[in-house]
């Protein structure tokens, strides 16, 4: 449970999913999905890229569940009910879990020892390893990737979003602007000037989420969406 202390020597069962359909012993790679904040079956069913390239790479697919989610509960049903148990819910502990699982796979899966491992993740699952080496990643690179997604989707798409922030600010300073924004975005309650930053945060999160699930096929990972939803 605790990889970095000495007082707690308890262990817990971590769930992981594995597919060896295309695994070529001593000649393939291991694609290792670093789990997110949720049930690992959910992520394995919506990570098409790994399944798409498995045959070409002769890959062993491994989906590791993040501690405190799904069935990987260090303190069973009490895991998230008491703050004293939540001290062990950190990205550092989760990464150490993944490292230990990789060591286990190398020891127990025939042909795995010595084969290359490629870590794959999305959203938090992809970011957590980077956080431990934040000096290697330029600030703002994530939002640049999001912006590039919209640039590729159509002429002046990203430019329109960029201009929208100024337009919202200008409208919020007029008597007719706030009611217009309320109607335009089909909001449940009438906007006031104090709500504008929350509105922009909500829109920004929408653009980010669309970029994250901009899959080339229909999916219902966050919501039912068509292929290439950014377009």
From TrEMBL:
It comes from the Eukaryota. Pfam families: Peptidase_S28. One of its GO terms (biological process) is angiogenesis involved in wound healing. Keywords: Glycoprotein, Hydrolase, Protease, Signal. One of its GO terms (molecular function) is serine-type exopeptidase activity. SUPFAM superfamilies: alpha/beta-Hydrolases. Belongs to the peptidase S28 family. This is Prolylcarboxypeptidase. It comes from Neotoma lepida. The lineage of its organism: Eukaryota, Metazoa, Chordata, Craniata, Vertebrata.
């Amino acid at each position: 449970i605790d990889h970095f202390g000495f007082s707690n020597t308890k262990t817990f069962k971590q769930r992981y999913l594995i597919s060896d359909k295309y695994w070529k012993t001593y000649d393939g790679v291991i694609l290792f999905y670093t789990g997110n904040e949720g049930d690992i079956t959910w992520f394995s069913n919506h990570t098409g890229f790994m399944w798409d390239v498995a045959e070409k790479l002769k890959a062993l697919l491994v989906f590791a569940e993040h501690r405190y989610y799904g069935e990987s509960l260090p303190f069973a049903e009490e895991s998230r009910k008491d703050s004293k148990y939540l001290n062990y819910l950190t990205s550092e502990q989760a990464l150490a879990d993944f490292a230990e699982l990789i060591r286990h796979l190398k020891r127990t899966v025939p042909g795995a020892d010595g084969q290359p491992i490629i870590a794959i993740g999305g959203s938090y699952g992809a970011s957590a390893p980077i956080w431990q080496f934040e000096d290697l990643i330029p600030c703002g690179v994530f939002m640049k990737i999001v912006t590039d997604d919209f640039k590729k989707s159509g002429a002046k798409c990203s430019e329109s979003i960029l201009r929208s922030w100024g337009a919202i600010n200008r409208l919020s300073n007029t008597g007719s602007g706030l009611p217009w924004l309320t109607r335009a975005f089909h909001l449940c309650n009438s906007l006031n000037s104090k709500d504008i930053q929350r509105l922009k945060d909500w829109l920004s999160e929408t653009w980010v989420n669309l970029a994250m699930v901009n899959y080339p096929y229909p999916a219902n990972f966050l919501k039912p969406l068509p292929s290439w939803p950014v377009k």
